[in-house]
Structure formats: structure tokens, C-alpha cells
What does this fold into?
Amino acid sequence: MSDYLKHRDVVMVGDGDCMGLVMAHLANKGLFKSPAKIRIFDFDERVLAFVRQAIQDLNIPSDLISCYRYNVRDPVPEEFKQAHDVFYTNPPYGSVDGGECGKLFLARCMEFCKPAPSWGVALLPFAHKEDWSRKAMLNVQKFVCDQGYVVSDMIREIHQYHLEDRPSLRSCNLVVDRVRNVPSHRADKRVLDEELFHFYGRKPLRMPEYISINAEMVFEDGSKEALSEEPKWRTAPTEQP
It folds into this structure.
């Protein structure tokens, strides 16, 4: 992705895979031309704390990368509207929502970015042998076109997941280019719970405001709920030599 991001002010919306940190670290080591600035927005305080600590540990300049707590259900903060040249996002994505999660993340990304000719990159699953994936991609591409973008590149099958039910699923990088300016239908609007029915998959779940540093989902009414399970990479048994 470095060719798309070099010398640009980049916004990363949802960065659970820490791609922003990877980009900043490798650019700081001189492996490729650096973005001018990277801003990370995520609603998981654990991710933000890790990134901030890694910035110090890896001696990455603080003016290159910074991070902020933000939930895509909320309007984009005023100070960051139209403040970036390019976006990168890896939204949550399932087989039952018809691409709605991807569209929400993309809508917020578009608000973060400058008017045309800005552009963006979205990491989205695409499997041409699965109807749900083709239909979701159709909905996403219709959405970006309606919002004034064209799909300028689709780099297919370069990401793989650890999925027990779909081990062969791959994702693509969908590169979109803003060619005309269209007001976002989400601008200055908070997304309601009923719009997030399948946000995390088949089983409806309440959408938290954020995830705390203590691994608790914190909801709008102030209630908290511990995350139900640890990530597999934490709980997997250690292999013995």
C-alpha cells in the first residue's frame, strides 16, 4: 500500500491489525517512502494503548503517527473533517449484512477525507464462488459510485483469514478514487442501534461505545460487559520443543 500512501496525510479508520503502526515503523526505517502523517481512529482502548507504547519503544516520530478513540456510529469530529488525502480501512465484515458494515466504515472514511481528488483503500472479502460475497461487493461498489467515487483498482486475494468455517476465504484491496463531491448521507448523524443488527455477524449484539483498556464493552447507558472470550492467539497452547 505504500505507493498509495506515500507523502500523503492518511486516516486509518478501525486499525485492529495495526497496519498504521506497521506502515509508520517501516517508513521510519527507510524501507519505503513515508506518508506525511498517519492518524488512527479506533474504538478499542487496548489497540490505542498498544500503538502509543510501540511508538515510544520503536522511536517513531510523534508527528508521523497519532491515534484517537472513535466509534464509526458517531459523526466525525469537526477538527478532522476533510483533513486527509487518503483513507485506509479494514472494516468488520460478515456474510449476512450485505456489505452494510463496509458501507458505514467507508462513509465515515469519506467524511475524514478532502474533496476530489482524494482517494482511499478498503480491505474487503471477495470470493467469486460465494453468492453472499459477490452481492456484498456489488452493494459496496454501488455505494462508492453513488458517493462520487470510481473503483480504480481491485487487488484480489492478497489477504487470508483464520476462519474455521471458511478457511479458503480471501480479501482484496479495493482502491477508490473520488472524482466528484457528494454530501455524505451519514454526515453529522449518529447511527442507531437498529441499523447495526448484523454488525458483528449472525447473532445480534449490542454495539458498545468503546472497548476499555480492561477488555470491557462500555455501552451508551454506562453499563459494562466483559468480552466473552480471549483472542485465540492469547489462549492457544504453547508448542513444546
